[in-house]
Design a protein that fits this description.
The complex is a heterodimer of chains A (513) and B (502). Chain A has 513 residues and is mostly helical. Chain A has 19 helices and two strands. A two-stranded antiparallel ribbon of chain B has the order 1-2. Classes of the chains: A mainly alpha (513), B mainly alpha (502).
Chain lengths: 513, 502
């Protein structure tokens, strides 16, 4: 078996599989009706399986032999296109494989609505043009491409494709609100990519290189590097939705069809965060002034509180979840302040905690958006005041919301607990205890905003009318994903072993003795 | 990984798996549900007894799984774990049988029994945790598993209380986490060690003392120290078996058990005394004891009175632990069991009364002793035990606490005990007087005659009689080595040169 995994051609699979599926699904748009749907579904599921298998293969390869570099067509950098996979890349691939796979299964049910079935629809449930699968597959290919890209320019290209396909997915519903949210997201996305491109141009002007590893060796603390760091950080903070640049998020996540919301909130925001991690630590590892990390750190801390407070004031499930994302994204940015703190031995904990939250939050939040989708599918809306007692009709979906909420609150045994525990330890350990207070406060605030929906949903009162039963595959997928997120805290050991491969910081040994 | 390493995990899983299966059963399948549940309980009890025997013969049971840099998931069994584990497994069986009678025909029984079992599994995890990290994990699982039980009735009032319950307990959990992380950073991986895991050289005394009080604040929420106690009387909105579970075995006890762990097996009595953190704890516990007893006297609703009584009685445990004296520690540790048995009896009686006669207020309990003699007899036994009448369980606890106070050089604690005893008598004796000698109230006079042979559902009556009998037995046979008292002496004596009397 080992010899199979040594073949670096595996590295192309996570990109090529969804790309091929996107092309096939696009061609299938020519067919009409039921046949197209079935064919596209089959293609999409096959691609999801392919991504999962190739991610596992890469996992075996990277944990066996360390980081891998693949030269496309045998051309070395700086001439050829190179792919590079270390623990972080594979970790992100696994994240997309899990959440993207669940999203694909969910979509089978979500888009199964028959045409003209209901007049009260709030979201597009039919996907009459069959454009969901091609867009989603392009999106997936671009994300996986980003995780494997070895140079700054290819990162830019994947970033652009990602933004375009995500904007298109938002508008899939076809409502006026969806169009305006999609347009706004497109503008934000282009602006973010532009800032990134300017940063890269500055780097290229200074060092004449685009390869990340080469840049990392060449970079030195000079003003153009700082400007590049600032531009790239600004662009990616915008695309990830860091406070106060989160303004586009609630509208985008709310107006997208829930199948797409799950993918957007779960994965797309994380991709730009990944890029930030790459650039910040692999390229600017030694040349950024330590104080610079305080800017994203402080904004992240504000985001945790602000997002949670705003989430408490929402009256729709999906906007509540969107503001919850604002809050949870804030946790990710804490790591920039924590790794540049006074205690270098805490750096891996902070970095690993943030990265682990990417996976934990992706699973939990995607599951919660899927559950919201089931509510909308069944009841026709997601307005919390009109959903009193809905647990009696949709027990699985309310349970999904509650179980996913365990990660938001950072309680054991969820992955959110592991992540927040590490962030907490790192903030106390580096002497920046004020961040630890924010981490803790975020948990309590999360409990409060989750109860905003759960409390009325659980009481025994006459409840909203379910006028259409959602396919069980929708609620089932959401529930399984949520339950998975709760067990993530128990699976941390192998995943941290993986993350330590090629990590920018030395990791401690696992276990206490 | 051998059989003995898996045993602690199996104890937790036996009840957790049974509960998990039950979630998927339709409410109407009562027989299958009971079969699965009793099956899980039997397996658990057998495993617990095997382990109890093993621990008595000084075998080791340890399961260690590395989860994070510097952190293990650790289950390890020692004498203190067994005390709490036997208590929770035993009372679980009793309250389950009771619940089957109590909830006959009620909606959402699968949900109820599922979370009930999960709560007990979490309690077992708390008992078996070998380090603070693992303890914290199960402590929080307990919070989540008990929430659906507290709001079981699904009324707006229940939801309001549930919200309060979550905010209090999650807030407490967050503070506890701060303590766990703080100690991890200062002292590395801390495992529970009889006699104390810390040497005192890890950090300055002020830092260690500060972390100690963070622990007390975090654990104090579930332990219901004044002023963190308000959730406990409010949580009375839950069904009675849940109240019994919360007060006697699970939630409140988890807080108290955590305090025992922190004082005895993390800091150790010697170090805690050197740091000067014991006296503040004694004072907090004393204030809570007096305040709780005082408030209890003003409640007319029976369950509320019992709740305030719990606020008061559970702090006996912390009081005993905080006395720098092994006798005091014995009194505190043994009260962990005694209070559990007595309070469960009282709650089960209260539930039987309200289910059978619809009476929830003390002012309407006149003459009830003639209609339900067995139930009220059990109630009287437990209440007298609470007051501290020999030879009941409560007397043993108070006796050791008193002796401990003297040998610790804190004679004023005796005054606290006396005051609390007087207040106990003030709020319990009128109930007994009215029940047996009072004029029958309207409700009692109009109550229908019992339908079967028994004064109430036998599935409720027998558990009540069982726990009442235990209340008496653990007091009468306290001198035996295997009694809770004998076991507590064993626990308190470890890591010291204390010789338990035989």
């Amino acid at each position: 078996m080992a010899s199979v995994f040594e073949n670096t051609n595996w590295m192309l699979a996570p990109i090529l599989v969804p790309l091929a599926a996107a092309t096939v699904a696009f061609l299938l748009m020519g067919i009409r009706g039921e046949a197209r749907r079935n064919a596209q579904n089959a293609v999409g599921l096959a691609a999801a399986l392919g991504v999962a298998l190739s991610a596992l293969a890469l996992w075996a390869m990277v944990s066996g032999g360390g980081p891998v570099r693949y030269e496309l067509g045998g051309w070395e950098a700086p001439l050829g296109i190179n792919l590079y996979a270390d623990g972080l890349s594979v970790f992100m691939l696994i994240t997309t494989a899990i959440v993207g796979g669940a999203g694909s299964v969910y979509a089978l049910g979500y888009f199964s609505g028959r045409e003209g079935e209901d007049a009260r629809r709030k979201e597009d449930l039919q996907d009459e043009t069959g454009s969901f699968w091609p867009l989603w597959m392009f999106l997936w290919a671009s994300m996986n491409g980003m995780f494997l890209a070895a140079d700054a320019f290819n990162l830019y290209i994947t970033l652009e494709i990602l933004g375009l396909s995500a904007a298109a997915l938002i508008t899939l519903g076809g409502t006026r609100m969806a169009f305006s949210a999609g347009m706004r997201y497109l503008m934000v996305s282009l602006l973010g990519s532009l800032a990134y491109l300017l940063g890269v141009a500055l780097l290229y002007g200074s060092f004449g290189a685009l390869d990340l590893a080469t840049l990392g060796e060449a970079a030195s603390p000079i003003p153009p590097v700082w400007a590049a760091l600032a531009l790239i950080s600004l662009g990616m903070a915008l695309k990830t939705g860091l406070f106060p640049l989160h303004f586009w998020m609630p509208a985008a996540y709310t107006s997208a069809p829930s199948a797409a919301s799950a993918i957007l909130a779960g994965l797309v925001g994380k991709a730009s965060f990944y890029l930030l991690l790459r650039v910040w630590f692999d390229v600017f590892g030694g040349s950024a002034p330590p104080a610079a990390g305080q800017i994203p750190g402080v904004l992240g801390a504000v985001a945790i509180v602000w997002g949670a407070v705003m989430a408490m004031r929402q009256t729709r499930i999906k906007t509540l979840l969107a503001y919850s994302s604002v809050s949870q994204m804030g946790y990710l940015f804490l790591l920039f302040a924590l790794v540049s703190g006074a205690a270098p031995e805490r750096s891996f904990e902070a970095w690993g905690g943030g990265v682990y939250l990417v996976l934990a939050h992706a699973c939990a939040k995607a599951a919660m958006f899927m559950a919201a989708g089931v509510v909308i599918y069944s009841v026709g809306h997601d307005e919390i005041p009109r959903l009193r007692g809905i647990f009696q009709k949709l027990p699985i979906s309310v349970a999904t919301f509650a179980v996913g909420g365990i990660t938001m609150m950072g309680l054991p045994t969820s992955g959110g607990f592991t992540a927040k525990y590490l962030l907490f330890t790192a903030s106390v350990g580096t002497g920046q205890w004020w961040y630890s207070l924010v981490v803790l406060a975020g948990s309590i605030l999360a409990a409060l905003y989750l109860l905003r929906f759960l409390n009325p949903a659980l009481i025994q009162v006459p409840t909203a009318k379910v006028y259409r039963d959602a396919p069980q595959i929708m609620s089932g997928t959401a529930f399984v994903l949520a339950v998975f997120s709760v067990f993530l805290g128990l699976m941390s050991a192998p995943l941290f072993e993986l993350l330590s491969v090629g990590a920018p910081f030395p990791s401690g040994t696992m276990g206490g003795s | 990984m051998g059989w003995s390493a898996m045993l602690p995990l199996l104890v937790i899983l036996s009840s957790a798996l049974a509960s998990f299966v039950i979630f998927f059963l339709d409410d109407s399948r009562a027989k299958l549900r009971t079969a699965i549940y009793v099956g899980g309980e039997t397996v658990k009890l057998v495993l617990v007894l095997v382990m109890l025997r093993g621990i008595y013969f000084e075998e080791d049971y340890e399961l260690r799984v590395p989860v994070l840099p510097g952190i293990d998931f650790l289950l390890r069994v020692n004498e203190l774990s067994m005390l709490f584990l036997v208590l929770s497994a035993g009372l679980w069986l009793v309250t389950t049988v009771y619940s089957i009678g109590y909830l006959r025909g009620a909606p959402h029984r699968s949900r109820f029994f599922g979370f009930f079992g999960l709560s007990v599994s979490a309690t077992a995890g708390i008992a078996l945790s070998g380090n603070l990290f693992t303890f914290y994990i199960f402590y929080e699982i307990l919070t989540l598993a008990t929430y659906p039980l507290v709001v079981h009735r699904d009324t707006p009032e229940a939801m309001r209380v549930g919200r309060m319950y979550l905010v209090y307990t999650i807030g407490g959990g967050v503070v506890l986490l701060a303590g766990v992380v703080g100690l991890q950073l200062v002292a590395g991986a801390v495992e529970f060690t009889p006699g104390g895991a810390l040497s005192g050289d890890e950090a300055s005394g002020a830092v260690l003392a500060a972390i100690f009080f963070i622990f007390i604040a975090g654990l104090g929420v579930k332990n219901a120290f004044v002023p963190l106690h308000s959730w406990l009387p409010a949580a009375m909105v839950a069904p009675t078996p849940v109240s019994a579970l919360l007060h006697g075995v699970a939630v409140v006890k988890a807080g108290a058990f955590g305090i025992v762990r922190v004082v005895h097996e993390v800091y150790g009595l010697e170090l805690a005394q050197t740091l000067g953190v014991l006296l503040p704890l004694t004072i907090i516990a004393s204030v809570t004891i007096v305040y709780g007893s005082f408030m209890a006297a003003f409640q007319d609703e029976l369950k509320k009175r019992l709740a305030y009584s719990t606020v008061s009685q559970v702090s006996y445990i912390a009081l005993g632990i905080s006395l720098f004296s092994l006798t005091g520690s014995v009194g505190g540790v043994v009260h962990l069991v005694h209070q559990g048995v007595m309070k469960v009896t009282l709650f089960l009686c209260a539930g039987a009364i309200s289910e059978t006669l619809g009476i929830k207020h003390i002012s309407k309990m006149g003459g009830i002793g003639r209609r339900m003699p067995w139930t009220m007899g059990a109630f009287a036994l437990a209440a007298l035990g609470m007051i501290g009448l020999p030879p009941m369980a409560g007397f043993i606890s108070k006796w050791y606490l008193g002796l401990g106070a003297i040998s610790a050089g804190q004679p004023w604690v005796i005054a606290v005990l006396v005051l609390s005893t007087v207040l106990n008598a003030i709020y319990f004796l009128p109930i007994l007087y009215a029940a047996f000698f009072g004029k029958p109230s309207e409700e009692v006079a109009e109550a229908p005659e019992p339908e079967g042979r028994f004064e109430t559902d036998p599935l409720m009556l027998f558990p009540i009689l069982t726990t009442a009998a235990i209340t008496l037995l653990v007091g009468v046979f306290a001198g035996m080595e295997i009694s809770p008292l004998g076991w507590s002496e064993l626990i308190a004596g470890r890591g010291t040169d204390y010789e338990p009397r035989n």
